[in-house]
């Protein structure tokens, strides 16, 4: 291949600057940081998937591909390899790591957002082309790197599937009233509001896997109630005082006439998954529809329902568009003592996770929520002791028990999303502790995409699950909220689904 001079000195300087910046992955680290910090949705996921794919590709290219591939001397035209003249290229090893990382990042980003991936193609072309232009690589090197990077990016689907962005399916709730101007709506503003930072994006990925919710810490003040009154001016908004049980406040409001003299017809909550679960349990008991305003950090349930923001949720309530959603219930008790019932809309978890939440709460003021969560998870995994339980009367030794409200996907990996909100089943998964090196085998199987065939991982669906802990009482986490220690848990689906307002799909 012959390389000639670039007619534009400015373009040559730009390429040289880009080429140098691409060293050590600085270009794609900067792009990823921008995407992650820019907001929510596919852009943030594209940034995280892209930087992880680029890092993995760079490691493979330097540690495996280059040492294993034969050294090939590249003979270029007699003019010399470098654009400004000078000695010809020396022999290189396939592939180009710069091109590989660029292809990996763009391919991974395109999985989450095709439009974003297309917009990054010129930058990737500039990084790869600069390697050829300045004689650092040949066209063959760049093409080999691009193939390697795209392949590794595609492999990320095996351990981190691309989550579908469409709302989960559910039957329409024809009986849900159109609230019009908001008369009869009692809504509590208990939001953990705030735009997440880069580390919180990592939490968005691992949170559903370990049951971490975004509402298990003291909430921050929500946005002004005027946003609610702008669309539903007659809605009754409750802003609870710190330390006050807002569920009791909402239930008391249901027992008395509305301020305008009418009867309460629906309840709502501005907050994250923990607050939503508490109100969903009340809505199920009282037989009223639920309005969910996604004012938490992650809003897993709202995302599954199809509520992207507060205005769209309020508009759906105004117009009467709703679907029927299952609510999970768990009866919690101790032998020879009373029992209480907790609701969950996403997941419940038994094992090391409640301990992780407690440690995170102790550390998060100093380190921040997600760094503290990562450190707490590492601490718990290192120090965890097996848990002996009876599942429907059969004894097992486990590390962790996961119970999902509805069937989660993918079946062979850690649960990430659910296709339906009205499946009427529990998704039960647990990690066995009675086989050698179970935690290591679980990690290897998860990373290699073979979890569905692993002996250490059990997944099944149930309509009801009885759990008895053989030993001291332990904590249970429901949508991130740690419940009081107990040794008996009975999981089930509430007899009747709850109507939840969401925008009309038509």
What does this structure look like?
GO terms for molecular function: kinase activity. This is Undecaprenyl-diphosphatase. The chain is α+β, with helices and mostly antiparallel strands and 506 residues long. It folds into 3 domains: 9-159, no CATH class; 185-202 and 210-322, Rossmann fold; 329-498, Tumour Suppressor Smad4. The protein is 41% helix and 20% strand. The chain is built from 15 helices and 19 strands. The strands form 4 sheets. Strands 8, 9, 10, 11, 12, 13, 14, 15, 16, 17 and 18 form an 11-stranded antiparallel β-sheet that branches. A 4-stranded parallel β-sheet has the order 4-3-5-6, sandwiched between helices. A hairpin with a 2-residue loop joins strand 16 and strand 17 (481-486). Helix 3 packs antiparallel against helix 4 (97-112), helix 4 packs antiparallel against helix 5 (114-133) and helix 4 (97-112) packs across helix 6. The longest helix has 27 residues, at 42-68. The chain is globular and about 80 Å long. The relative contact order is 0.11.
Secondary structure blueprint with pairings:
Elements: H1 9-21, H2 26-38, H3 42-68, E1 71-72, E2 92-93, H4 97-112, H5 114-133, H6 139-159, E3 185-189, H7 198-210, H8 226-231, E4 236-238, H9 246-254, E5 266-271, H10 273-286, E6 290-294, H11 300-305, H12 310-319, E7 322-325, E8 328-333, E9 339-344, E10 347-351, H13 353-367, H14 369-383, E11 387-391, E12 394-405, E13 426-432, H15 438-448, E14 457-462, E15 464-469, E16 474-478, E17 481-486, E18 488-493, E19 498-501
Parallel strand pairs: 3-4, 3-5, 5-6
Antiparallel strand pairs: 1-2, 7-19, 8-9, 8-18, 10-12, 10-16, 11-12, 11-15, 12-13, 13-14, 15-18, 16-17
Helix pairs in contact: 1-5, 2-3, 3-4, 3-6, 4-5, 4-6, 7-14, 13-14
């Amino acid at each position: 291949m012959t390389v000639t001079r670039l007619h534009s000195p400015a373009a040559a300087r730009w390429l040289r600057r880009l080429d140098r910046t691409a060293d050590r992955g600085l270009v794609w680290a900067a792009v990823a940081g921008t995407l992650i910090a820019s907001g929510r949705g596919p852009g943030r996921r594209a940034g995280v998937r892209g930087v992880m794919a680029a890092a993995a590709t760079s490691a493979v290219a330097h540690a495996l591909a280059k040492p294993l591939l034969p050294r090939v001397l590249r003979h270029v035209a007699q003019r010399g390899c470098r654009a400004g003249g000078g000695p010809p290229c020396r022999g290189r090893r396939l592939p180009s790591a710069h091109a590989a990382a660029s292809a990996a990042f763009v391919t991974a980003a395109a999985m989450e957002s095709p439009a974003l991936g297309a917009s990054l193609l010129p930058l990737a072309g500039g990084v790869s082309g600069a390697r050829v232009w300045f004689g650092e690589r040949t066209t063959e090197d760049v093409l080999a790197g691009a193939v390697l990077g795209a392949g590794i990016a595609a492999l990320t689907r095996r351990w981190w599937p691309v989550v579908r962005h469409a709302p989960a399916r559910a039957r329409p709730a024809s009986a849900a009233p159109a609230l019009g101007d908001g008369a009869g709506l009692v809504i509590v503003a208990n939001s953990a509001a705030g735009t997440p930072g880069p580390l919180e994006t990592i939490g968005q990925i691992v949170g559903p896997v370990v049951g971490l919710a975004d509402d298990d810490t003291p909430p921050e003040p929500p946005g002004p109630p005027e946003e609610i009154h702008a669309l539903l001016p007659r809605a009754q908004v409750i802003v609870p005082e710190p330390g006050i049980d807002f569920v009791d406040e909402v239930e008391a409001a249901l027992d008395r006439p509305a301020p305008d003299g009418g009867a309460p017809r629906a309840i709502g909550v501005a907050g994250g998954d923990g607050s939503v679960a508490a109100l969903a349990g009340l809505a199920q008991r009282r037989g009223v529809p639920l309005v969910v305003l996604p004012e938490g950090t992650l809003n897993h349930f709202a995302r599954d329902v199809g509520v992207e923001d507060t205005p769209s949720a309020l508009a759906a309530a105004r117009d009467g568009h709703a679907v029927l959603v299952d609510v999970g219930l768990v009866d919690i008790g101790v032998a020879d003592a009373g029992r209480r019932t907790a609701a969950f809309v996403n997941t419940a978890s038994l094992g090391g996770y409640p301990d992780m939440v407690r440690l995170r709460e102790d550390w998060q003021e100093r380190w921040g929520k997600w760094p503290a969560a990562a450190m707490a998870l590492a601490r718990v995994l290192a120090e965890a002791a097996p848990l002996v339980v009876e599942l429907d009367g059969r004894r097992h030794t486990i590390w962790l028990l996961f119970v999902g409200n509805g069937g989660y996907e993918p079946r062979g990996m850690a649960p990430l999303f659910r296709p339906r909100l009205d499946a009427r089943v529990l998704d039960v998964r647990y990690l066995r502790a009675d086989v050698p090196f179970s935690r290591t085998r679980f990690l290897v199987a998860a990373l290699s995409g073979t979890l569905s065939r692993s002996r250490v991982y059990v997944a099944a669906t149930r309509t009801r699950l009885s759990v008895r802990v053989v030993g001291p009482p332990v904590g249970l986490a429901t949508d991130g909220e740690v419940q009081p220690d107990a040794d008996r848990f009975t999981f089930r689906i509430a007899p009747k689904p709850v109507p939840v307002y969401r925008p009309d799909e038509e």
